[in-house]
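Severity: low
Component: inverse-folding endpoint
Summary: output formatting inconsistent between runs
Steps to reproduce: submit the following structure tokens with default settings.
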């Protein structure tokens, strides 16, 4: 992490998670609405007080980052270290948005959510997930009309 990124992360740490997600999305070149929709799809039903520690079947934290897949690319020494590290809200958001950015670059914007969920495009589970994310994006756009 560069000094500038560290300073930005420290400043963002004092803001709500949605603002932190939006800022990292802008930095990573990910549409903000996509990053927020993925976040909400992953832990939107979990109480805010538990979103940073929630561990799903394969995911950790509010962005439900899979440590088995991502511990090496994210720079952790082991899967166990990734599980611990990704329970930090800020590390989890940075990692989740960085993974989403990879998906946008590799699979394109249309298939990025499916890639984020399934690791690749073309599975039924991934398609259902992507449709749920697209529905969240549509609801976000509808709720902000008239501003």
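Observed output (run 2 of 3):
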């Amino acid at each position: 992490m560069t000094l500038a990124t560290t300073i930005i992360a420290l400043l963002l740490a004092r803001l709500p998670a949605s603002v932190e997600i939006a800022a990292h999305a802008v930095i990573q070149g990910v549409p903000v609405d996509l990053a927020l929709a993925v976040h909400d799809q992953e832990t939107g039903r979990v109480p805010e007080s538990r979103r940073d520690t929630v561990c799903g079947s394969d995911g950790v934290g509010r962005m439900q980052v899979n440590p088995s897949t991502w511990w090496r690319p994210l720079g952790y020494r082991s899967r166990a270290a990734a599980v611990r590290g990704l329970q930090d809200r800020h590390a989890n958001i940075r990692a989740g948005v960085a993974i989403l950015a990879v998906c946008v670059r590799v699979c394109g914007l249309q298939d990025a959510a499916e890639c984020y969920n399934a690791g690749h495009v073309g599975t039924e589970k991934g398609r259902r997930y992507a449709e749920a994310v697209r529905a969240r994006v549509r609801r976000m756009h509808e709720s902000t009309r008239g501003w």
